[in-house]
Write a structure and sequence with these properties.
Elements lengths: L3 H5 L33 H10 L8 E8 L5 E5 L12 H12 L6 E6 L3 E2 L2 E2 L3 E4 L8 H13 L4 E2 L3 E4 L40 E7 L8 E5 L6 E4 L2 E3 L8 E4 L5 E5 L1 E3 L5 E6 L3 H15 L3 E2 L3 E3 L7 E7 L3 H10 L3 H14 L6 H13 L24 H11 L5 H7 L8 H4 L15 E8 L2 E9 L5 E9 L6 H12 L23 E3 L5 E3 L9
Parallel strand pairs: 5-7, 6-8, 7-17, 8-18, 11-14, 12-15
Antiparallel strand pairs: 1-2, 1-22, 3-6, 3-19, 4-5, 9-10, 9-16, 13-14, 20-21, 21-22, 23-24
Helix pairs in contact: 2-12, 3-6, 3-7, 3-8, 4-5, 6-10, 7-8
Length: 535
Amino acid sequence: MSRCPQFRRVPSRPGRVAVLVALLAALVVAPAGAPSATGDDALGRDLSAVLAAPAFAGADIGLVVRRADTGEVLFDRQGDRRRQPASNGKLLTGALALDRLGPEHRFRTTVESPARRVGPVLTGDLYLRGGGDPTMLAADYDALAAHLAHAGIRLVRGRLVADDTYFDDVRLGLGWAWDDEPYYYNAQISALTIAPDTDYDAGSVIVRVTPGAAGAAPTVEVEPPNTYVTVRSTATTGAAGGPTTLVVDREHGGNTITVTGSIPAGRSPVTEYMAVWEPTGLAAAVFRDALRRHGVHVVGGTATGATPPGAAVLAERRSMPVRELMLPFMKLSNNMHAEALVKEAGRAAGGAGSWPAGLARLRAAIAGLGVDPARTAVVDGSGLSRMDQVSPAQLAELLLAARDRPWFPDFHASLPVAGVADRAVGGTLRNRMRDTAAEGRVRAKTGTLTGVSALSGYVTAADGTELVFAMVSNQTLTSAKPLEDAVAIRLAQYAGAADRRQPVAVPEPRSAGMDGTAGADGTEVELECSWRKAC
């Protein structure tokens, strides 16, 4: 069943609007020795001026702009140089999912048993079999349990066995940062998992800390409620109006969540999203609790293992189709969706549900979209890995080729839209480029890691011309978001043959912390705004 309507009802959070300095009346002249760029017309000179902003001296920035109808290159600055794409890597994964799995593809989760049934009694083990679905919620496991109860099963004499063998047991991607491991945007990948919300943040839980009276301990709740994780809190409630110093963390190698620091009395609850260790166990625990609530008693313990051949299917749940999953996946840059889609692509082709098998299909898919896989390095589906290497020219080529595919409307609709406040439409661009020429006319995938930023997609220019652009920045010391916004705004102002030079918004230096957060050692890190639930 589809849950996209639920996705659209997720409350939006205020974000920080991208800061651009006042438009200058005269263009900034590129300094001597600046990297060369093609495009000697008004558009090319204006874009060159933007990219020459002193704040980004020493950064490695590539930008390609092409007409969508003819493929003509309107601007190219170092477009062939490979760079870390961050979440622009999801453009490749989205194309893989739609091209090789298909827009109507669905994941399947089942409850099965090889045991004989005698009246209300199941005489052996009960298997909860995962099929890679990253959108499973506690309500879905509850519905599976209710189906068994409605069928008259009241007693399982064997065990509850969690089967996650549809995918391999490699939980984390190659080259993922160790210090991101406790956080939900870096959650472990399992074929049997659970999400705590309708953003479908699979493999994680929500920790909610509510202050008590001053001097008392705050209340700590976990969503979904479960006994799989343990909370150890030494946090206190401080005086009203005081600072919030709460730190929520998870101990490595287990599911003990620690809460330390202070929250002032009267403050609204603090919410943190934390990845769990081995999400298969969390899904099984939530399902077992659901069985108990519906009056189905399992005598044995909980184990893991493969479902025997020939087991009878007692209940099943099919996910929303891929075309609907593309919305929370791309709009909110969901890493876990990306990796589930890659592994599913490998499994659906008759291979293993693994990164190697899925990435082999990804390489075949992008080759069919004009991208030479021998000139890329892609080791995951989300762009989390620092080992991924893709050039702006390759991204632009993929975006152009996608326009000729029957699944393009789903691909195009999944991209965030600049300045549109509705979170299910604007996504990671909802707070950027508002009240500019780009508002509502730029559809593009964002990408953000510390020192890496990207924005690639489609622009409807002022004269109605459709443009494709890909911009990837590496080795940045300040946020590149104002630079990207200035480029996108200028593209939205493009007037074709009648184009004239425009006043250029030249970005000023801006701390990465304005788009990110502080790391454990106090240093600033930069992340996608959706990963911080800030957009």
